[in-house]
Amino acid sequence: MTKLRMNQAVSAALADAMREDPAVVVIGEDVAVPGGVFKATDGLLAEFGVGRVRDTPISEMGFLGAAVGAAATGLRPVVEIMFGEFLGVALDQLVTEAAKLRYLSAGQYGVPLTVRASVGAGLGFGAQHSQCLETWFYATPGLKVAVASGPQTAYGLLRAAVRDDDPVVVLEPRRLYGGRAEVVTGDDGIIALGSAEVRTAGDDVTLVALGGTVPVAQEAADGAGWGAEVVDLRTLVPWDVATVLDSVRRTGRLVVVEEGPFSGGWGTEIAARVASELFGELRAPVHRVTSPDVPVPYAKPLETRYVPTVEYVREQVGELIETGRTPRPWWSREGAHR
Amino acid sequence: MSTSLDRRVALRDPTARLERMMEIREFEGRVKDLFFEGVVSGTTHLCEGQEAVSVGLAATLRPTDHVTCTYRGHGVALALGCEPSAVLGEIMGRTVGLVGGVGGSMHLSERAVGLMPTFAIVGGGIPVAVGAGLSCQVLGGDDVAVAVFGDGATNIGAFHESLNLAAVWKLPVVFVVENNLYGEYSPIASTTAVTDLAVRAGSYAMPAETVDGQVVDDVAAAVRRAVERARGGDGPTLLEMKTYRYSGHSRADTGPYRPDGELEAWQGRDPIALYADALVAAGTVTAGEVDALRSAVTERIDEVVAEVRQAPEPDPSAMFGHIHA
């Protein structure tokens, strides 16, 4: 057990993966000499050399496409996309090529590719560098999607992604890179894709969170007047249906806590499934606490409201439990927007 | 029974190269007929007129080299060695198809001969070939990667990013552009700032050659020079193959947008006729043997069509295979 910041946990995972398998290469903008703009690849160049740790041109279409081809022909590349938004210029390579090569070759070509990308608001980067992009990928059969919620999940999910024989997108909430925690490294620290974690036990409600909302949900539950099971989903594709259903069966209530627009958010999938499977067993409507349907605003007071806050989550959950009815979101209640 | 690899190795022989070009021509004609008959659904992109590029390329590469190709890929697949019944099976969506019928005309793949799944997105395969070249470089050995794409793809960002990356990393990649003068329905001069595409390599300090894509042994020789450079660690090359698409872009397109006489002028330099004449002149074959070859090819493709017509369509369960490892 070592105390690491989340970016250090990423570096540690990459170093361990590269020691384990000589086919693992790290590719991205400024990942080698500078060690990554978020310092998540620091030290790799010194240990593994220029053959396996490669700075690229600012050219996502080129180097992500190259990583797909490399993965199909014997390497196990890990690509860093500095800001997840930059995947927008290379979606073809991920969604239309990587996700389909195994299918379109009847299994002759697999794509053991890991794409790491920073996501999320909180650092004042404005509308084009602050989005959560899970929903860009989650309706693409052939891709897996995992989201780190702190140093341990950053380490464990990344190790599992690199070992996986299919393309995996690992999203890292950028505002969590600096947070420190004890990290179990090595095989014991690896987190199987598709497994959620129940972080706290409670009887009144299940809070399902992912990535950056995990610490928010956790803090909201700590010291609240009600008891919550906080579930860190960890992997969105495939998601751990059994763990979530088991938890909601016990608590009778589901609140999904999401960073990102209300409409079409990843929580719609969770909410719909739970409502459908546990219809008769619910004590309250399934509920989603999300961001409003707006681009991420810059000014600090606005950006702070954009991401569900601890107070907001606590208030929404409290009202749901108390009234048994769906609480209105803050922007409707405060008249900021209908 | 012959295998895909046997078919590939056979191309060392000039007569086999002639025969393979005839096979591709005959095959594409049948695909067109089957499409109009309604037994090929969706779309087809035929390569009649471009046979020398496919065969010259395949005659030069090793089966362990990696090839990415476009949706106009029937000829490349057949040239690399894929069995006609497996290629037609895929086009007709049958279980005997290269990937069991889930792919279709635009998605052909056979790893044994180095054919990665052909790409239905213009330019999609170019960076993938760069990555295959990266594998060759990092894992050692002297295999190379080849990207085959059309002139239209040279206006796609992925083309430029790929050439730059391959040049910066000095990767063993050969970029082969089949300049058939049309991107979909638009003539090259209306969409592209330069019509001699080899010059585009200059922006990436990359060697390039302009090749007569109608002469199979010229194609093979140019590919050989580029491949030797790549195998020797001297990095990528761009080869522009000047060629022509006899058919339109796809399906029922007959190419009405082409100027009068253009098709006929290119047919006057037909790659199959040129090579047959050259082999007869060299005394490699007689005119009678050329005719016999053509008849044998027709007969064989007749058999392939009959066989694939009888082949089963996939069960519903087939759609669930090979999504994950």
TrEMBL record, chain B:
Keywords: Oxidoreductase, Thiamine pyrophosphate
Oxidoreductase keyword on record: yes
GO biological process: pyruvate decarboxylation to acetyl-CoA
Pfam families noted in UniProt: E1_dh
Signal peptide start-end: none
Cofactor: thiamine diphosphate
Name by which UniProt lists this protein: Thiamine pyrophosphate-dependent dehydrogenase E1 component subunit alpha
Native organism taxonomy: Bacteria, Bacillati, Actinomycetota, Actinomycetes, Jiangellales
